[in-house]
Amino acid sequence: MRPAYSPPRLSALLSALLVCSLLLCGCGKKGPVMPLEAKLPTAPAQVSLSQRGSSLLLAWNIPTLNQDGSELNNLKRFDIYRIDYVPETGCPECRNPQYLLHQVDVGFYQSKERGSNRIYMWDHFVEPGVGYRYRIVPVTAREQAGADTTIHRPCFSAPPIPTALSARASDRQVVLNWDAPSVEDERQGVLLGYNIYRSKQGEYFGTRPLNREPVRSTTYEDQDLSNNITYRYTVRSVIKEGGFILESDALPAVEITPAPPL
Which residues lie below 8 Å from residue 229, measured CB to CB, with a gap of 6+? Predict the structure, then answer.
């Protein structure tokens, strides 16, 4: 009986496959080949989204490293994208924001904010009863996008504001007093207390309150101040609604100057 005929080309192919299999089995390395990490910015960290009055405040830290662990030294800007959704029926995780809302120039922002490594961006074009999702994308000087990050929350009607803010000064100290918001507000939110903000005369209020936790009473003592310096104060009420914390609009500011006794 004649042996089975094997075409030359098929025999050569089978031999090559056998050699490749032996080489792979004997290399001593297992698992998939891991791709090299990109020399592009890591995603912004410590991202937060809060409501203050009728606006939303988006904040994040500027990344300092590339995805491969090297130092990030060519960051140019952040592109901020936004979509809106219906909080009751929407699915913000299903869609990535594609509408370019704003661009933040890193160099300009840091020069304006004295080298701050945290960026704050106000969005005043929001409506109560609508949810908003944001995507923050770092972009290099070569117009290359780094890793992005997203965050979302619903927007509510602004909480009622406190009233009748007054201040009394003494030696290195200021005492503030105000009245609680009107009880006529029919919202279902729970009043947690108040946040107090301070600035020096001629300066803007910062984004962080003086107090770590909402102040429960309608009085606040600010101590260890500098005498003969004029300070500005404002107060916002803090409520919890639908599992979210939000603040009211700010009271009209009061100015006062602590001084030593005569």
Answer: 200, 201, 257, 258
Show the 3-state SS of 112-181: HCCCCCEEEEEECCCCCCCEEEEEEEEEECCCCECCCEEEEEECCCCCCCCEEEEEEEECCEEEEEEECC
Domain ranges in the chain are 45-154, 163-256
Question: The dihedral of CA 206, 211, 217, 220: what is its sign?
Answer: negative
Name the fold adopted by 45-154.
Answer: Immunoglobulin-like (2.60.40)
Same topology for domains 45-154 and 163-256, yes or no?
A: yes
- The pLDDT tens digits for 79-129 are 999 999 999 887 777 788 999 999 999 999 988 887 889 999 999 999 999
Contacts for 210-217 with beta carbons within 8 Å, 24 or more apart?
214/238
From the number of C-beta atoms within 10 Å of its C-beta (0-12, 13-18, 19+), residue 164 rates as exposed
- Locate 11 and state its tokens: 């025999």
Give yes or no for a contact between 56 and 26, defined as CB atoms under 8 angstroms apart: no
Q: How far is CA 49 from the centre of its chain?
A: 5
**Exposure b/e, 21-57, CB count within 10 A at least 16 = b:** eeeeeeeeeeeeeeeeeeebbbbbeeeebebbbeebb
Give me the CATH code for the 163-256 domain, please: 2.60.40.10
Q: What are phi and psi of 3, to 5 degrees?
A: -65, 155
Nearest Cα neighbor of 137 from 149, 153, 129 is 149
